[in-house]
Specification:
alpha/beta, 9 helices, globular, Methyltransferase, Methionine Synthase (B12-binding Domains), Chain A, domain 1, binds cobalamin, 209 residues, 11% strand
């Protein structure tokens, strides 16, 4: 049987081919994190096609679905086959007023693959839920995801509230329109361009080099 190009299949939203390729790569022993990297590359192409006007909102919704289904298989494989010791904890969520979660879910999966316990609060997360989770889990890292410029103020509010109850936690921000200036505006400790940055920053925060 011909080998499926997972990046291309993801970019072209061929769900069956994507799920099959994920399964067969895992069966062949490809590391889950490498399978994930291919899916992510495909998603980047989806975003690009959307910005170029080649894809519409319906394709975006579809891409989220395909990605989530593929990630579910990956997570199952991780839970079943690989054991990770916890090197640190991150409380993670998409900020109030924002429902984007694809990037956040990638961050969660990649951090989990790198030994972090991730407490995922979901999307449209009220400030008080972040505060409650931070008090309960005492994380080294708090991650805020934000894809909408109109939610920057909610992110700023969340940073201030988290800082007040956990002054020593490292607060990281990320998501499409976020950059260093936005991180500064919100009072965060760092901006992460992608999930791999998030791992580097989080390891530093947890005292691992
Ligand atoms: C897919 C998508 C959707 C999907 C979301 C599905 C889902 N389950 O998430 C749907 C269709 C639902 C959607 C809805 C809307 N969307 Co939308 N969406 C997108 C799109 C095309 C891709 C986002 C994405 O998933 N990218 C892929 C992931 C992998 O990338 P990422 O999120 O950037 O994540 C990576 C890094 O940023 C980083 N990262 C991300 N989060 C975090 C967090 C931490 C802590 C760290 C450390 C790192 C990190 O790591 C990730 C992996 O490497 C973007 C366009 C774009 N270029 O971003 C628009 C975009 C974000 N959407 C936009 C808009 C306007 C909307 C809507 C308001 C549309 C509408 N009129 O209803 C609604 C929002 C509703 C709401 N209240 O939230 C605008 C925002 C414009 C702006 N300036 O604010 C964008 C930029 C599109 C555009 N060019 O106009 N959207």
């Amino acid at each position: 049987m011909a080998k499926v190009d997972l990046v291309k299949a993801m970019a072209e939203l061929e769900e069956e081919a994507v799920l099959e390729a994920v399964k067969s790569q895992l069966a062949e022993g490809v590391a889950a994190i490498d399978v994930l990297a291919q899916l992510q590359k495909g998603m980047e192409q989806v975003g690009k096609l959307y910005e170029e006007g080649e894809y519409y909102l319906s394709e975006l919704i579809m891409s989220a679905e395909v990605f989530s289904n593929a990630a579910r298989d990956l997570n199952q494989a991780l839970d079943a086959g690989e054991n990770f010791s916890t090197v640190g904890t991150m409380v993670l969520g998409t900020v109030k007023n924002d429902i984007h979660d694809i990037g956040k879910n990638i961050v969660s999966t990649i951090l989990t693959c790198n030994g972090f316990k991730v407490v995922d609060l979901g999307v449209d997360t009220p400030v008080n839920l972040f505060v409650k989770a931070v008090k309960e889990h005492n994380p080294q890292v708090v991650g805020l995801c934000c894809l909408l410029t109109t939610a920057f103020d909610a992110m700023k509010e969340t940073v201030a509230a988290v800082r007040a109850v956990a002054p020593s936690a490292t607060i990281l921000v990320g998501g499409g329109p976020v950059d260093d200036n936005v991180a500064k505006y919100c009072g965060a400790d760092g901006y992460c361009k992608n999930a791999y940055d998030a791992v580097e920053f989080s390891k530093k925060a947890a005292g691992i080099h």
